[in-house]
Amino acid sequence: MIRWQNLWRFIPLFGLMMLLLTGCGDQTISALKPRGPVARDQLFLMKLSFGIMLLVVVVVFVLYLYVLVRFRKKKGDKDIIPKQVEGSHTLEIIWTVIPIILLLILAVPTVQYTFKLLEDHRDNKEALHVKVTAHAFWWQFEYPELGIATAQDLVIPTNKKIAFELTASDVKHSFWVPSLGGKMDTNPGNTNVYYLQADEVDVFKGKCAELCGASHSLMDFKVKSMDQADFDQWVAKMKTPASVPADAQKGEQIFKDNCLSCHAVNAQGLGAGPNLNGFASRELVAGILPHNDESLKQWISDPQSVKPGNKMPQVGLKDDQINDVIKYLNSLKLK
């Protein structure tokens, strides 16, 4: 019993820890720090709903405290039952009308923004059309009008609507870039549409927001926003075939014999695995590991140890073959 009674001493410690933890995080993965118009509209709705709830809580507590103080029993008072107000039509109208008004204040902009943010911009010539396909546990990005495809790194121009067409190849996933806007489900056999837009040049973190399997928490991706000129250069580089140096050609052949059936290395190729065009220019391996030879060796030799449940088979290459493949992959740079 004494032990439980002493727990109150930890309350200040818990409060301090909570205060410190509120400072942790990443501004490129926070819905509370919007970096685009969609995210700002959604933050406005969050603030509006929070403000209404806070107003209701404050009013209820003020009335509660007023009643406690105003009608408390004072010393010398007799046991008198206060005047009963049950059946007061005035009060009933007041506490019925006020919630209706508050709901309307919240519902009108919510419905308005819902229809606005779910507009289909795929036919908008001013927007960039991107097809997103979620796999276990990686992301595929296609640019139909530009004739290119990539994986894990979504590259977009700033100050331009990005019209998304979202689906999944296996199970239900959910596409979410917190700094740019809310999540949207990706369902097998079904297509969802919405749009996002980035205001500034930066790299934003994306997540899968739907429990989809053993490596759900590792199903990350990045969104790189660029100026339009830089984006155009990136597109041109993606369409330019990589030149393989002589010392990497042995690894290229091993890759073709063992990996090419799943992994494309050209601008438009799609397969069971991620498109590796420009792979050497990516910052991460498998979306989560730092891009270095050690990470590549770990991923190629035993992919299940990195992302349990993923569909990449254990090819069974020898160490020298893996090293040759790594040398080839490191040559796939965007020139």
Automatic annotation (TrEMBL):
Membrane topology: Multi-pass membrane protein
InterPro entries listed in its UniProt record: CcO_II, CcO_II-like_C, Copper_CuA, Cupredoxin, CuRO_CcO_Caa3_II, Cyt_c-like_dom, Cyt_c_oxidase_su2, Cyt_c_oxidase_su2_TM_dom
Annotated compartments: Cell membrane; Membrane
Enzyme class: translocase
UniProt keyword annotation of Disulfide bond present: no
UniProt domain Cytochrome oxidase subunit II transmembrane region profile: residue ranges: 23-121
Cofactor binding annotation: Binds a copper A center.
Keyword field: Copper, Electron transport, Heme, Iron, Membrane, Metal-binding, Respiratory chain, Translocase, Transmembrane, Transmembrane helix, Transport
Highest taxon in the source lineage: Bacteria
Domain Cytochrome oxidase subunit II copper A binding: 125-237
TM segment ranges: 49-69, 90-108
Gene3D superfamilies noted in UniProt: 1.10.287.90, Cupredoxins - blue copper proteins (2.60.40.420)
Catalysed reactions, semicolon-separated: 4 Fe(II)-[cytochrome c] + O2 + 8 H(+)(in) = 4 Fe(III)-[cytochrome c] + 2 H2O + 4 H(+)(out)
GO CC terms, sorted: plasma membrane
Domain Cytochrome c, first and last residues per copy: 246-333
Known function: Subunits I and II form the functional core of the enzyme complex. Electrons originating in cytochrome c are transferred via heme a and Cu(A) to the binuclear center formed by heme a3 and Cu(B).
Name used for this protein in its record: Cytochrome c oxidase subunit 2
Species for this entry: Paenibacillus elgii
